[in-house]
Design brief:
Two copies of one chain form a homodimer. The first copy, chain A, has 13 helices and no strands. Chain A is an all-alpha fold. Chain A is globular. Chain A folds into two domains: about 55 residues, Orthogonal Bundle (Arc Repressor Mutant, subunit A), CATH 1.10.10.60; about 140 residues, Tetracycline Repressor, domain 2, CATH 1.10.357. At the A-B interface, α1, α7, α8, α11 and α12 of A face α1, α7, α8, α11 and α12 of B. Chain A binds a DNA duplex through α1 and α3.
DNA sequence: CCTAATTTTGACCAGATGGTTAAACTAAAT
DNA sequence: ATTTAGTTTAACCATCTGGTCAAAATTAGG
């Protein structure tokens, strides 16, 4: 076969993603990844020399899933209101498909914040875009025009992202305390929350006289 | 000495708290805990037979730090607005003193949601209080009186807690991307955020004609 | 003091874990 | 068919890890 190779590499990454995201770097076992990929443990080290390197790859892929959409939305020409609504809609959908990634990323970054520096060094373009500066400029421009209330961009972004991500990473505790551990009910809650968060955010930055 | 015992047990718990909260259950090493406590590793197993049991104790203590204050505030006689403001003030201060706990709790619960069930079984009173039901009743009562906008209690609580907790658990990523990894700047951000979040929440539930 | 109970230690163990190696297998090129 | 390069495997290794145990040290009571 021409590409048994790529197939194996793909199976490894799939398995590694599952195991790392569920158990974390320290909890993951190379043997379990090998088993899940249906290969020999030695083959893992043939493709990715160390656990560390395999982990970095998985982390980078997980992290990169959330970057392009963010750039696309934030650098587009839409007004802030539309951007925020679209951002919430888009990322809440994305998180439904990848619910383990935020907790994984947050946890591993708390364990070793250096990971982020490494990613920035490898993918310079992420920082070069000056994503934040450009978005901040747009916000303050719209504030000046009276389209939105005066607001600190960092606080606003923290709020938007937090309201999206928190119910996902804290799912076990919220579902356990407020929803009697009913999975279906919590899924419904998350679905319904999309419009709630949109309104919540928009209300909070809409000028009083609008 | 009368109580070398309690002293040792305390030193163990202190050390275990540090190590578990920083490295998680799977990343923590009994040897490191022993070293940090200044004792022999065998002594750990003398006081807490297994790693699992020691971990459970540490988790329970960490978890319980956030319960009493929550109960006190939510079951008090104040109106909702005051409760929320006081809640935000109080918990943001608490998190400044215990910044590692939320990430620790969230991470371990994602790894093994069963932990929460065990805690509820041990500490029945937490669930018996019907904390949520009582608070929900108050909210809906004030909604009826027109003091606050119609709002879903679960969504509101998720928002309040999320806005408080998220900047703490996601600190490495937010500080890295939006604050150029400047620790002091981020501390200032968190301090300033208290009033911001209060306003943000209050604005969003204040009736339009108020 | 002497004794019994409790606390602390050093040495040790079995199993797990990340990683290595040499050999076997596969497929395409000559 | 033979060579060559890449792929896969089984067996193996050194180290780490949670946990045990018997003996030593300390403490409290009579």
């Amino acid at each position: 076969m021409v590409n048994q190779q790529k197939d194996t590499e793909g199976k490894i990454l799939d398995a590694a993603k599952d195991v790392f995201q569920q158990k974390g770097m320290t909890g993951a076992r190379m043997q379990e990844i090998a088993d899940k990929a249906g290969i020999n443990k030695a083959l893992l080290h043939y493709y990715y020399r160390t656990k560390e390197k395999l982990f970095e790859k998985v982390f980078e892929i997980a992290f990169s899933i959330f970057i392009p959409r963010m750039q696309e939305i934030m650098l587009s020409e839409k007004p802030v209101f539309e951007k925020i609504e679209f951002f919430i809609e888009s990322y809440m959908d994305l998180l439904t498909k990848h619910p383990y990634i935020p907790g994984f990323v947050i946890n591993e970054l708390n364990r070793n914040p250096q990971i982020l520096v490494n990613i920035f060094e490898k993918n310079i373009h992420i920082k070069e875009n000056k994503l934040f500066e450009k978005f901040d400029a747009q916000i303050q421009a719209e504030v000046k025009k009276g389209i939105i209330k005066p607001i600190d961009t960092r606080n606003l972004m923290t709020n938007v992202i937090g309201l999206i991500v928190f119910p996902i990473v804290a799912r076990p505790i919220i579902q356990g305390i407020m929803f009697d551990n009913d999975k279906k009910q919590y899924d419904a809650f998350l679905k319904q929350r999309k419009d709630f968060v949109k309104e919540f955010i928009i209300n909070s930055i809409k000028p009083v006289n609008a």
